[in-house]
Design a protein that fits this description.
Helix content is 36%, strand content 14%. It has eleven helices and nine strands.
Length: 315
């Protein structure tokens, strides 16, 4: 592994994270991808480090990915369940984390429904915080694993890439993390979606914004399709799921007018037949399952690079 260190102490988002830090995480993740291909997929890098997984929101893919990454690194893992915790009795997030911190933990992985919760924890605790998704704010490790997947599959440098992010920009933390990470590395970024799902102030991101998917995809090297987040939406933002698929769904017919080597991505879970059709999701241009594998490698890299230095070395 690289002996270089990150300039950041916590990973609460990709906004403002230097390009050198992003490249270091990606390079380290490449090394861990090799480890994941071995018969024995475990290394003692985080022996003695205690990581708490703090999931206030339902999650399968991200929670399992972090837990697998932690166990692959031989960390001591504690899984926090809000359904059986004192949070159900009215305990504040600050009191919960401080009580857990008193048990001498080192790192906290948090997913929370409120934007800014990881940044808040970083201010009120000495533990190292990794954001596993907060409200409509950011999902930095998803953004990083998307970057890693692009880098592995495309022969161009990021500065020569055109990436289109399709879907619910208004509610998507993944789109925001993709934007910040891609822009830090010099890529050209566009977002496409219904005007009702584009947030106010979107022009401040300094990206191209489309409401015509065919136009947006003309020169794209990558399309990253986002799930329609029905659980976060107010009613009436889209006419119907069928209409959304007709206008913004990634279909094999629509792909006929794109670059032949267009890379197709989706952070999951997929609403098949809504934002992407089954034959496209499972087709030869799709790298969706590779994204899942890269998630473990990215989370291993992030944990190792952020872990307390004195404890991150195996004894």
């Amino acid at each position: 592994m690289s002996e270089k260190q990150l300039s950041i102490k916590h990973l609460t988002g990709l906004e403002g994270v230097p390009a050198d830090d992003i490249r270091l995480i990606l390079n380290t993740a490449d090394s861990f991808r090799e480890i994941l291909e071995r018969p024995i997929k475990k290394v003692p890098t985080l022996t003695g480090v205690t990581v708490v997984n703090f999931f206030y929101e339902a999650s399968t893919r991200t929670r399992l990915s972090f837990e697998m990454a932690e166990k692959r690194l031989n960390a001591d893992v504690v899984n926090f369940s809000t359904s059986t915790s004192s949070a159900k009795k009215g305990e504040t997030l600050k009191d919960t984390i401080r009580n857990i911190e008193a048990m001498k933990i080192d790192m906290v992985v948090i997913r929370h429904g409120h934007s800014g919760a990881p940044d808040y924890l970083a201010r009120v605790t000495d533990a190292i915080i990794l954001n596993a998704g907060d409200g409509c704010h950011e999902h930095p490790t998803q953004g990083l694993l998307d970057l890693l997947t692009m880098r592995q599959n495309l022969k161009k440098p990021f500065k020569d890439l055109r990436v289109v992010l399709v879907g619910d920009f208004r509610h998507s933390r993944v789109i925001r993390s993709n934007i910040w990470g891609l822009k830090a590395l010099g890529a050209s970024v566009a977002v496409c979606g219904p005007p009702s799902l584009i947030p106010a102030g979107a022009t401040a991101f300094d990206i191209d914004i489309y409401d015509d998917l065919d136009e947006a995809l003309k020169d794209a090297d990558v399309v990253n399709v986002m799930r329609i987040q029905l659980e976060r939406q107010e009613g009436g933002l889209i006419p119907s799921l069928r209409e959304y698929n007709r206008t913004f769904g990634l279909t094999s017919e629509r792909l006929k007018n794109t670059k032949k080597d267009l890379l197709i991505m989706h952070p999951g879970p997929i609403n098949r037949g809504v934002e992407i059709d089954t034959d496209v999701a499972d087709g030869p241009r799709s790298v969706i399952l590779q994204q899942v594998t890269n998630g473990v490698a990215i989370r291993m890299a992030s944990l190792v690079l952020l872990a307390p230095q004195k404890e991150a070395v195996a004894g």
